[in-house]
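#struct-queue
[09:14] JT: dropping the first one here, sequence first, then the structure tokens:
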Amino acid sequence: QVQVVESGGGLVQAGGSLRLSCTYSGRTFSTYAMGWFRQAPGKEREFVAALTWNSGNTEYADSVKGRFTISRDSAKNTVVLQMTSLKPEDTAVYYCAHRRLGAADFNSWGQGTQVTVSS
């Protein structure tokens, strides 16, 4: 079992930046990847970014490429999502997720942190 906790959300004006952090604990030796997802009001949850733990490879949704960066601090079991050039359409609850080795998908989720971008 892996516990995931996000932090760092808030209110920012369009064009601004925010940094989200995600700390995970538990059976962390079995980490395959960490990811960020978001859900806006009235919409389904969507993929934002992911980082494969062993290789360090990253993947981004087209809507955030060039603006968001996912990175890690392995010693601290922390994943960071640096968000720049924020737009009102980035407003959502952002969730961090853990995918263990052998799992078909992300299977441990945090409670989410609100990001609001004002125009």
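[09:21] JT: and here's the second one, same format:
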Amino acid sequence: QVQLVESGGGLVQAGGSLRLSCAASGFIFSITFMGWYRQAPGKQRELVATITSAGYTSYADSVKGRFTISRDNAKSTMYLQMNSLKREDTAVYYCNRDPETARRLGYWGQGTQVTVSS
């Protein structure tokens, strides 16, 4: 069955960097559109970055220029390099497929907590 395992979160000072990883299994990762999502306390989950099977990327305005999404299809793993972190980046970060598929299947991994201190 589908498994998504996020890792790499932690506590970091504002201006610092973190690299998140997402290990995927149970589906053909190499042809799957993927995204990173985050949910801050008291807020709805939001999509922050996406990457197509061919490697085309897009970003939410709030992270553009600071975050970089990438993937290694041979390892069925996706990454999120986060630089110049801000307090408002504090959230639990999740990886998943496209929003419609994620909503329809209703599966989410455990996420990884990112906390940015001032």
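[09:30] RK: nice, looked through the second one.
[09:31] RK: The CA atoms of residues 29 and 91 lie 25 Å apart.
[09:31] JT: good to know. The chain is about 5% helix and 50% strand.
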